[in-house]
C-alpha cells in the first residue's frame, strides 16, 4: 500500500489552487497567513542588520583597543612637558596612562624652579601621580574646555578646575593643610626654612575670558607659621640693601596669618590681611589690578611691619636692620616704631621699596598733576584780566556813551578789544556864557574918519634903533593936551587888554 505525502512547497504557497476543506464541525476558520510574506522578510532583514552592526562594533572596539594598547604614552608625556617648557615652566613627565572616556594619569611629574639668587641650587617639586579629567565630547561638539586636576603633595590634597566657553571662563583652586615649605617657589625665593600649614581657596569667574573683568574671591590662611632657623640666609625678593644680600635671622613666630581678597571688576582688593604674634605684627592693605595675561598683573600693596623689642633683643642683626632703616621706610606718628614698605612690580618680578618712596610712574603722575595745576592757574589769570577789561569798557561806555567805531575798524568789535584812549589835550576852565546886553551898541565911527593901517616899518639895526618924532602940529604929541587918537570918539573907554594867546591890537601911534 502506497501513501502519498502532501507537497510542502504547495502548503507554503497556500496549497496550490485547491481550496482548503472546511473542518468537519462546520466552523469557519480564517485562512493562515502565508509563510514568506512581508513580516518574515522584515524579521530576516533585522537579524541580518543586527549581525552586521555587531561585526562593525566589534571591529571598532578592536581598532580602539589596539590603538589604546599601542598608544605611545611616553611620547605624549614628553609632548606635554615640551609645551610646558615653551610656556616658561620646567616640567618633566615620565609616563602617562590614557582612558577612553577622556581621563588620564600623569606619573612622576617633576617641576624644577629656576634659581632665585646667584649660586643657588634649583629646587624641585615631585608629584607621584596627577589625575586629569578632560571633557572630550564637550570639546569636540561645542569647543568648550573643561579640565579637572587632582593630586597629593606631602599628603595634602590639591584640587583645581578650569572651564572655558565662548562667553566666560572660571578657575577654582582648593588647597588644604599643605606644609608651608612645600608651597611652590616660596621656599626657594625666601631661602630661610618655613614651617606651618597653608590653605588656599580661589573662586573666580572671568566674563569674556578676561582677567580684567574677573569677579570672585581669594582667601588664604597659614596656621602656626614660622620662618628662619638662625643658620640659613633670608632673602626678600625685590628688596635692596642688606636684605637683598641675605641676613641670618632666628626662628620668628609668624602666628596665624589670615588673608581675604575680594575680586571685583578685575581688581583684587584686600579686605583683611594681618597677623600678630609675640615677635612681629604685620598688616597688608591695597589692591592688585589684574591684566591679561595674568603674569603682567602688577602689585599695588602697602605693608606695615612691627618688630617687637623681644625679637630685637633676641637678634642683633634684626636690631641693627631696624635702627638703620632709611627714612623712606620709617612710619610717621601715630605709627612710631613701625616700618612701611610698598610691594610693586609684576607677579614674575616683585620689588619692595620704602613706603615714602615714589616709583617712576608716581613721579610722572605728580609732574603731570603739577603741569595741569599751572595751566589751570594761567587760564584763571587770563580770564580775570579779560573780565576786568570788559568791566572797564562797560564803565567807560556808561560814562561817555556808546563808543563810536574808529576809522579803519571793522563793523563789529570783539569783547576783548581795548577802549580807544582820548587824545591828551590842555584842560581849560569853561568860560561863563555871555549874557545879552540891554544897552544899545556904541555908534560906529564914520568911514571917512577911519584911516588905513600902514604896514609896520621894517626893523632897524641896533645902532639906528631910534624912533623919529613926528612933526609938531599933527596932534599926535604925548603931552597933557594930547588929543585922542583918530577913529575913537570922545568919552569912549580905551580898548581892553588882549587875552592870553591873542595878538595885541595894532597901535598906529608910534611911541616917542
Topology:
Blueprint: H1 8-12, H2 38-69, H3 73-86, E1 90-98, E2 103-112, E3 124-134, H4 136-142, E4 145-153, E5 156-164, E6 168-179, H5 186-190, E7 194-207, E8 215-227, E9 233-234, H6 242-245, E10 247-248, E11 252-264, E12 267-276, E13 280-289, E14 300-307, H7 309-314, H8 316-323, E15 339-345, E16 350-354, H9 360-400
Antiparallel strand pairs: 1-2, 2-3, 3-4, 4-5, 5-6, 6-7, 7-8, 8-11, 9-10, 11-12, 12-13, 13-14, 14-15, 15-16
Protein name: Type II secretion system protein GspN
InterPro entries: T2SS_GspN_Lepto
Keywords: Membrane, Transmembrane, Transmembrane helix
The secondary-structure class comes to alpha+beta
Report the portion of residues in β strands: 25-35%
SSE string, helix = H, strand = E?
HHHEEEHEEEHEEEHEEEEEHHEEH
- Helix tally equals 9
Residue windows where pLDDT falls under 50 for at least 5 positions: 407-419, 421-426, 462-498, 508-512
Gross morphology: flat
**What is the terminal separation in angstroms?**
218 Å
Average pLDDT metric: 78
Mind summarizing the main beta sheet? Answer: 14 strands, antiparallel
Total strands: 16
Amino acid at each position: 500500500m502506497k501513501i502519498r505525502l502532501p507537497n510542502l512547497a504547495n502548503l507554503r504557497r497556500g496549497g496550490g489552487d485547491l481550496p482548503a476543506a472546511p473542518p468537519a464541525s462546520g466552523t469557519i476558520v480564517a485562512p493562515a497567513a502565508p509563510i514568506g510574506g512581508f513580516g518574515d522578510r522584515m524579521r530576516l532583514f533585522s537579524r541580518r542588520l543586527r549581525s552586521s552592526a555587531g561585526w562593525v562594533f566589534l571591529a571598532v572596539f578592536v581598532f580602539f583597543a589596539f590603538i589604546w594598547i599601542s598608544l605611545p604614552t611616553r611620547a605624549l608625556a614628553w609632548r606635554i612637558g615640551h609645551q610646558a617648557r615653551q610656556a616658561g615652566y620646567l616640567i618633566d613627565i615620565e609616563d602617562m596612562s590614557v582612558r577612553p572616556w577622556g581621563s588620564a594619569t600623569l606619573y612622576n611629574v617633576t617641576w624644577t624652579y629656576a634659581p632665585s639668587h646667584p649660586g643657588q641650587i634649583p629646587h624641585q617639586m615631585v608629584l607621584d601621580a596627577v589625575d586629569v579629567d578632560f571633557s572630550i565630547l564637550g570639546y569636540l561638539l561645542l569647543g568648550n574646555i573643561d579640565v579637572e586636576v587632582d593630586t597629593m603633595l606631602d599628603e595634602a590634597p590639591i584640587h583645581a578646575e578650569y572651564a572655558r566657553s565662548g562667553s566666560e571662563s572660571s578657575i577654582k583652586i582648593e588647597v588644604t593643610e599643605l606644609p608651608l615649605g612645600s608651597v611652590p617657589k616660596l621656599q626657594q625665593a625666601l631661602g630661610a626654612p618655613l614651617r606651618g600649614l597653608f590653605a588656599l581657596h580661589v573662586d573666580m569667574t572671568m566674563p569674556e575670558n578676561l582677567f580684567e573683568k574677573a569677579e570672585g574671591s581669594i582667601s588664604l590662611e597659614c596656621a602656626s607659621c614660622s620662618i628662619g632657623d638662625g643658620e640659613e640666609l633670608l632673602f626678600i625678593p625685590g628688596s635692596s640693601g642688606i636684605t637683598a644680600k641675605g641676613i641670618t635671622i632666628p626662628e620668628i613666630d609668624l602666628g596665624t596669618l589670615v588673608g581675604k581678597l575680594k575680586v571685583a571688576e578685575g581688581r583684587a582688593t584686600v579686605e583683611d590681611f594681618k597677623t600678630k604674634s609675640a615677635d612681629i605684627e604685620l598688616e597688608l592693605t591695597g589692591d592688585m589690578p589684574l591684566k591679561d595675561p595674568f603674569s603682567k598683573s602688577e602689585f599695588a600693596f602697602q605693608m606695615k611691619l612691627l618688630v617687637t623689642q623681644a625679637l630685637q633683643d633676641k637678634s642683633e642683626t634684626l636690631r641693627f636692620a631696624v635702627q638703620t632703616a632709611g627714612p623712606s621706610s620709617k612710619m610717621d606718628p601715630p605709627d612710631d616704631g613701625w616700618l612701611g614698605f610698598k610691594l610693586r612690580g609684576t607677579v614674575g618680578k616683585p620689588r619692595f621699596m620704602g613706603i615714602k618712596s615714589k616709583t617712576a610712574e608716581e613721579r610722572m603722575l605728580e609732574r603731570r598733576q603739577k603741569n595741569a595745576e599751572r595751566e589751570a592757574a594761567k587760564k584763571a589769570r587770563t580770564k580775570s584780566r579779560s573780565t576786568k577789561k570788559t568791566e572797564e569798557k562797560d564803565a567807560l561806555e556808561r560814562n561817555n556813551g556808546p563808543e563810536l567805531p574808529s576809522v579803519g575798524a571793522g563793523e563789529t568789535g570783539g569783547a576783548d578789544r581795548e577802549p580807544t584812549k582820548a587824545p591828551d589835550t590842555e584842560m581849560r576852565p569853561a568860560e561863563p556864557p555871555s549874557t545879552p546886553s540891554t544897552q544899545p551898541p556904541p555908534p560906529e565911527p564914520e568911514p571917512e574918519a577911519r584911516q588905513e593901517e600902514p604896514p609896520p616899518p621894517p626893523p632897524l639895526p641896533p645902532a639906528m634903533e631910534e624912533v623919529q618924532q613926528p612933526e609938531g602940529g599933527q596932534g599926535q604929541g604925548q603931552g597933557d593936551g594930547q588929543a585922542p587918537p583918530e577913529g575913537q570918539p570922545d568919552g569912549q573907554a580905551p580898548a581892553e587888554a588882549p587875552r592870553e594867546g591873542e595878538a595885541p591890537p595894532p597901535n598906529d601911534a608910534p611911541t616917542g
